[in-house]
Amino acid sequence: MISVCYCGNRRVFPGLLLSVLSLAKHTERAVHVYVLSMDLHEQNAAFLPFTEGQIGILNEVLREKNPESRAEQIDMTAMYKERLAHGKNRKAAIYTPYALLRLFLDRLPGLPEKMVYLDIDTMCAGDIAQLFDTDVSGYEYAAVRDFMGKFWIDKNYCNSGVLLLNLPMIRETGLFERVRDLVCTKKMAMPDQSALHLCGTKRLYLPERFNEQRGLKQDTVVKHFCKGIKWILFVPLVYNIKQWQREKVHKRLKIRAFDDLYERYDELAAEHPKEF
């Protein structure tokens, strides 16, 4: 079974559903989706875990393709509050605290040894099994170099939106524990991503097709709808278009490869209006 992890809150369910729809479409194998979430409504009224109904929709989507597939939500509230709630990046300017929840995967019992982590703003354009089956023995994790960071920060700076994790090795080296320490003590613009870069010692570099951060290509397995820059008459134009911004995906990014998934999304939204 392919193990995939997402992190987020109720507000980003449209993105999560679209990503899971794409995940299920492109693989014949059973998929176990782990959704890490928490209740931080005292910090922000929108910071709530996914509803049981929303997780039910994910299960419906996954089992339409393979009856053995499933999705489950794991409550990370207590673990986060104990370890990171008072750290220097608790109110990061760019990312919500939910992005940090993957840093606790080494502390969760009963997980498989290997796991794919995907940001909510990713869409599969190919079979995720191609990534999951990559050999990471001897490595803590595998990742793709960051499109912009490899020029401006470090040539080996990686984007953490798509990761293939070797959890036994991570526990052995204490990688996530060191990352959690750094996230607590050092203020960073991109906390977990930069901390992984600084603390990781055994990293496998993946080809861009596993985390395509620009245009969709023929061999793309995962398309990441992350922030980017276009140059117009030598002037940098920053854009940040997500897959759920359908009109912008069509008109500005010129991507129509996911139109069938948008149609299925609309059907599900009509069937379960209270969950959207």
Task: Explain what you see.
The chain is α/β, with parallel strands linked by helices. Helix 1 crosses helix 10. Helices cover 32% and strands 21% of the residues. It contains ten helices and eleven strands. It has one domain: Spore Coat Polysaccharide Biosynthesis Protein SpsA, Chain A (Alpha-Beta Complex), CATH 3.90.550.10. It is globular and about 45 Å long. The strands form three sheets. The chain has a seven-stranded mixed sheet with strand order 3-2-1-4-7-6-8, sandwiched between helices.
What is the element layout, followed by pairings?
Blueprint: E1 2-7, H1 13-25, E2 31-37, H2 52-65, E3 70-75, H3 77-83, E4 114-118, E5 122-124, H4 129-132, E6 141-145, H5 149-152, E7 158-166, H6 167-173, H7 175-185, H8 191-199, E8 203-206, E9 222-224, E10 228-232, E11 235-239, H9 246-251, H10 259-271
Parallel strand pairs: 1-2, 1-4, 2-3, 6-8
Antiparallel strand pairs: 4-7, 5-9, 6-7, 10-11
Helix pairs in contact: 1-2, 1-10, 7-8
- The span between the termini is 29 Å
Q: Rg to the nearest angstrom?
A: 18 Å
What number of structural domains do the residues give?
1
Order of helices and strands: EHEHEHEEHEHEHHHEEEEHH
CATH homology superfamily: Spore Coat Polysaccharide Biosynthesis Protein SpsA, Chain A
Helix content class? 25-40%
Largest beta-sheet details: 7 strands, mixed
Reported CATH architecture: Alpha-Beta Complex
Per DSSP, the total helix count is: 10
Number of strands: 11
Q: How would you state the average pLDDT, rounded? A: 93
Q: pLDDT below 50 for ≥5 consecutive residues: which ranges?
A: none
Fill in the CATH topology.
Spore Coat Polysaccharide Biosynthesis Protein SpsA, Chain A
Shape verdict: globular
Strand percent estimate = 15-25%
Structural class: alpha/beta
Strand order of the largest sheet: 3-2-1-4-7-6-8
CATH class: Alpha Beta
